[in-house]
Amino acid sequence: MDAETASAAGFSSFEVSKSDLRRWRWNDDGVPGASRLETNQVLIEISKFSLTSNNVTYARLGEATVKTTTIPYWRFFPTADGWGSIPVWGVGQVVASRNSRIRSGEKLYGFFPMATHLTMTPTVQDRARVVDDTPHRRELAAIYQDYVLIDREDRYHHMGTNAYVVLRPVFSLSFCCALYLLSERYFGAARIVISSASSKAALGLCHLLAKDRSSKIEIWGMTSAPNVEIVSERGRYDRVYSYDMIGDLPADRPTIFVDISGNQKLLAQVHHRLKSSLVYSCLAGFTHWNSVTNEQEMLPGPTPQLFSTPAHMVSLRSKLGVEGYWQRFTYEYGSFVEYVTPWLNIDRKFGKSAVERTYHEVLNGMVPPDVGNVLSISMSG
Hints:
Layout: H1 3-9, E1 13-17, E2 24-27, E3 42-50, H2 53-60, E4 83-84, E5 87-97, E6 107-113, E7 117-120, E8 122-124, E9 129-132, E10 146-149, H3 162-183, E11 191-194, H4 200-211, E12 218-223, H5 228-233, E13 239-242, E14 255-259, H6 264-274, E15 278-283, E16 305-306, H7 309-320, H8 322-340, E17 345-350, H9 352-363, E18 371-376
Parallel strand pairs: 11-12, 11-14, 12-13, 14-15, 15-16, 17-18
Antiparallel strand pairs: 1-2, 1-4, 3-5, 3-7, 3-18, 5-6, 6-10, 8-9, 9-10
Helix pairs in contact: 3-4, 3-7, 3-8, 7-8
């Protein structure tokens, strides 16, 4: 079987109902083979991708109709009406190319659908960075159009590792949020409370904030009762509370609340508990995807502000330069990897049933904090 026939026969994508994320299906339509690619297009076989609550957030906020988002995630990889392809971060390999600057066999790290293949129109920006110029993506958030040709420079080889596939997307939130809070001098706060404290994004944020001990700011975590012990053992938070202990939160010091849960009931409880001692309320994530609504309650204290990681990445890249941004990100990411390596367990899985099972577990919050899922739809990966 030639490469063209093999790629067309082996295509499959995982799609979910936009109105009910608990429903999913497989779309096994064909994809273009080499002879049907247009000029400058390449066909990517998606080798592996991570699946976390971050990706479920993309699905929950995909229509950009929820007031807390402006990014229409469903539009990156459009599907039939009523169904959507959840964006994921992963590694793919060029299996056919009509682009003179990208050869077959090269590997890319970037934003992909939960599928076996993707047709792209990449424009090479420099030696290792490309941008997908597929027409329907031009008006979408630019930060999601960047891909890295990971074989072209030694410093990018770590992008192909399973740990990078899991940690890099969530660490982007950690990195940008930490730098933002630092730039604002923590809004005069003496304490930061972070919800979903067991999530990798929260752990990354805490790790970075804890490095700035010159500020002497307290870092507290909030998580579900079963996770309190394991989060406490991570050794970064000064104190860890369970969600049923919100009534015990002291309102004795100026406090920032970084909400990564997206649980609006929790947000309201924290605001009503801390009231005027709350100096900044940050909506940074939506791990509790099924509690997000369009209804907004009038809360005591400051109005919660959406933290848009893509917008802050663009701002930092403008300030530091693209190269400067990635140098600083890579340095901080390296320190985070050293922190998580002793306890992070990569669960590498293959095949459609594994994808379905893992999606169900992520959707229902059943993935332990020390596990990172790396998936391949094909059995060979």
